[in-house]
Amino acid sequence: MVVKCPADTSDEMFQKCAALDRNSSGFHYSMDIPVLSLTSGIWYRNVYCAICNKDGTKLARLTYSLQCQHNYTREEVRT
Length: 79
Fold this sequence. Notes:
Blueprint: H1 11-18, E1 35-37, E2 43-44, H2 47-52, E3 59-61, H3 74-78
Antiparallel strand pairs: 1-2, 1-3
């Protein structure tokens, strides 16, 4: 799986590919979803990694869903 951009990539795209700043207002869930290039067969950490590696034209995204069995309160989650 490719998890970084080439050295000549812009700082913004590098940050999005690496998904480094999860507390940033710019963080989006798409930074956590791996994608598969249907052209090359290579997996990338996210769509941004595929784009900065010039392989972002035909991508397949993983699909997933989360289900909770209990409605936890904020306090329960923090402990």
